[in-house]
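Input record (one chain):
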Amino acid sequence: MKKLKVLLVDDEEDFVATLAERLELREIETKIATDGETALDIIGKEPFSVIVLDLMMPGLSGLEVLQRIKQMNISAPVILLTGHGSTREGIEGMRLKAFDYLMKPLQIEELIKKIKEAAINNK
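The corresponding structure, as predicted from the sequence alone:
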């Protein structure tokens, strides 16, 4: 399998930086965005194997970013993250064709497994 390239989108800067570090240690190339507008700008410029997107962010919500990704015809699968115990947004994200959603706090191995599944299913 070619090296995975993942975009991590989350407004919690410490969380996303730590997550990126942990993925890089496992040979997964990462790029970070801390808001939806920045994420969309990056997505428009370069391809990703998978996008990991937080649902609850100031400005554009994760669902709004997901809708725009779909409008841009970006084929990278999207894994949604929610830390607010709400499955309603996760279910709405699935309706919008997200690959899956995970609850925070998450286990790194579970996230890596989902990233690999998403990348394989997108071929």
